[in-house]
Amino acid sequence: MHRPGMRVPSSPAPDDAQGTATRRIRRGLVGLAAAAVLMTACQPSPGPNPAIKLAANPFPAHLVPNPNVPGDPDRGRELFSDTKFYPGGGCGFCHTFPSISNGTFPGAPNLNNVSLRPTLAGETIQNSPATMKAWIMDPPNVKPNARMPKLNVSDQEAQDLVAFIFSQPYNAIGH
Description:
- It is a single chain.
- This protein is an all-alpha fold and 175 residues long.
- It has a domain at 73-170: Immunoglobulin-like.
- 34% of the residues lie in helices and 2% in strands.
- The protein has helices at 17-41, 73-80, 129-137, 139-142, 155-167, and strands spanning 119-120, 125-126.
- It has a two-stranded antiparallel sheet with strand order 1-2.
- Strand 1 and strand 2 (125-126) form a beta hairpin.
- The radius of gyration is 35 Å and the shape is rod-shaped.
- The termini are far apart.
């Protein structure tokens, strides 16, 4: 508000270095304020950021067992990758199994939903938990000239591997 006799400060002359700096600072502050208002107004709605891709946990903490197959499917899952059976990755060195391994041995079958197949070993034997256990323990004894070697798996280890393989349809393994 201006009153008669009151001195009004004059704007600095355009050549004045201090005045130029002040104007630059004011313009910068106005620009920052405008940017802050725009950024606040343009925020996405709360929720997950679609630019961030998180890998799903491939397995539940504990697998749901097949009610008709004895053994521990969680222990079988651990055994599947145990290098004591086969160096370089256990069963997964040869066989592909969803979310666990991409086997590299030519001709070794993909084990995705193998428990739902009617036969094993190149369609030569009926598939059941008992025949799969026998196969895991001693493939050449079940099918002469089998390409899968005997891996010296104990009875309990074979049972747990079968429980794991037969639990696949009951769990979201690889889906």
